[in-house]
Amino acid sequence: MIGWWKTWKALEAKGIMGINRRNADYVLKYNKRSLYPIVDDKIITKERAIAAGIHVPELYGIISTEKEIDKLETIIGGRSDFVVKPAKGAGGDGILVIADRFEERFRTISGRIISHDEIEHQISSILTGLYSLGGHRDRALIEYRVTPDQIFKSISYEGVPDIRVIVLMGYPVMAMLRLPTRQSGGKANLHQGAIGVGVDLATGLTLRGTWLNNIISKHPDTTNAVDGVQLPNWDGFMKLAAECYELCGLGYIGVDMVLDQDRGPLILELNARPGLNIQIANDCGLTHRTVAVEKRLEELAAEGVQESPEERVKFAQGLFGHV
Fold first, then answer.
1. How far apart are CA 43 and CA 47, in angstroms?
2. Which GO terms are recorded in the biological process aspect for this UniProt protein (predicted)?
């Protein structure tokens, strides 16, 4: 019992945020339930982002009913690569990534050859709500397949690495690079076996990595070091993350972004209940940082001042940078 108490006190002193505190002090406090559909439905998120001039993967088409599945051929046209995903999916489930055509069939990102009928069957499963939050009926979107920037070639296995930034009231507080592995099936989802790598908010330089709750320094598939990598256009990522507060109105969110080799930083999706493993990757707790932002907000409110996204980024980088 004493050992448990000492461990808890040590974590508290380090500012480690637990799930109960996240839910009570941040998710419930800053996220209005009426605004959840904006982030829980990827189509709504994408439409709002486009209206706000924020870059997202291009939307090719939406399929809402079984009858509309017949539109698939028209939607994809002559494209050889695209992504099919549920609008209300979570954890990467239900996403089908087509990387190429093979005669009359298609090749997935993992190299599996599938037919047009199999893609239609996947869409039908999405519509029934198989992958949606709560199992409710869903819509399928077909969109542009992101081509990762070449900087990730040596530290990622297939798939598309993404960058998760936790944002409180428009202030970025912590960032993590998520790298696909063979075990994760090329998906950048930690619970499926992807790697989480901390990122210095000030510079965009990668820190240490965590994989299956173990601290690592090298990618298990490529054997290349995951730390010390300079992410390009980092200030652009930070500004993009900060702007998502105005985009959705939710005060505590996880912003997932990707770096496309041709189109630069793109918003992938927003999460109203971001996980806490980002603390392990950064060897740092969230609580001290979120409390510092709340103190900043109190000071600004007393002065009757609101900061722009650029000012919020500058504040966060100055206070939370590792280097």
1. 6
2. SOS response
